[in-house]
Amino acid sequence: MDHNLIVKNYIQIDATPEKVWDVLTDPRYIRQWDELPEDFGDEAVNAASEIDFPGYSRMKVSAFEPGRVVRYALHISDYTLQAVPDATYSYEIDVDENGKTWLRIEIGDFAVLLEDGKLYEESVIFGKTASQKIKELAEQDSYFGSGIH
Question: What's 111's DSSP letter?
């Protein structure tokens, strides 16, 4: 394969890394920037979390560093719920030398899928809208936050 299809979004957020982490892992926030199944509940995402959309897809946490990284491996029903090699949704929080909080979202690599173009295009839109909504939620003065989970 001589190309990859990875969506990359980097956004500076005027909020503490803890607030950004809460927006990434607290279902009360996640539901505002992404879909969750009705039965997911209100427990924060953790290293053992799975997000299951029966008949469509499942996302399992594949990397979890509290306050810094949450990454999901994508399993698609069309592919018998096997993990799609190198297809992940990754959220990483960094603080630069000036104390600014940055969120990096990477989605893909969808070049491994037969219908890579469709999923890639949908992920470009998702990456842009999700990063903006995460920024908006984290920058609000009032939020549900309870610290790093």
Answer: G
Q: Which of 149, 107, 139, 108 is nearest to 12 (CA)?
A: 139
The answer for residues whose C-beta is within 8 angstroms of residue 31's C-beta and 6 or more apart is none
pLDDT tens-digit profile of 79-114?
Answer: 444 555 557 899 999 999 999 999 999 988 777 665
Could you tell me if 107 and 97 are in contact, meaning their C-beta atoms sit under 8 angstroms apart? no
Q: What is the CATH number of domain 7-139?
A: 3.30.530.20
* Order of strands, sheet of 69-76, starting from the edge strand that comes earlier in the sequence: 7-13, 101-108, 83-95, 69-76, 57-65, 50-53
| Number of helices and strands in the chain (H, E) | 3, 6
The model's pTM is: 0.82
CA distance 37 to 18: 25
